[in-house]
Amino acid sequence: MPEVPFVPVHWRFPAHPTSVRRARHAVAESLPQVLRPHLGDDLGLVTSELVTNAIRHGVCGEGEDLIELVLWPADGHYWLAVSDPGTGKPELAHPGADSESGRGLILVDSLAAAWTVRPRPTRGTSVIAGLSFRQRG
């Protein structure tokens, strides 16, 4: 008999800066206690960066936009998808030393084992990042 997979955890938050903290907290609380010391900080930072980017760059500004998060374990990783209604494709930037922004995806790229950007089937974009939950040696 095949192993039954975990059901992904799903959240929706308003496209508002206060949602960054709420999203980070929700993701951290959903991790099994045993994984929090190994994965909690990195996953929290990835969550913060992706939700912040979604709010800044992926909303239409109509006041009712939502940011969606899905978290699930698979293949030795915790996968986080952050989706927004925008149609843009986030890309790695290389900001100058004096720049005050533009480093979010650089952080995601350095922490995640893999990440990608995918269009959503109906409307919007998802950024998906996977962080290994195998103990680091």
From TrEMBL:
Keyword match Aminoacyl-tRNA synthetase: no
Lineage top rank: taxon: Bacteria
InterPro entries reported for this sequence: Anti-sigma-factor_SerPK, HATPase_C_sf, HATPase_dom
Presence of keyword Nucleotide-binding: yes
A Pfam short name: HATPase_c_2
Keyword vocabulary terms for this entry: ATP-binding, Kinase, Nucleotide-binding, Serine/threonine-protein kinase, Transferase
Ranges where the Histidine kinase/HSP90-like ATPase domain occurs: 13-127
Matches recorded under Gene3D superfamilies: Histidine kinase-like ATPase, C-terminal domain
An annotated Gene Ontology molecular function: protein serine/threonine kinase activity
Record's protein name: ATP-binding protein
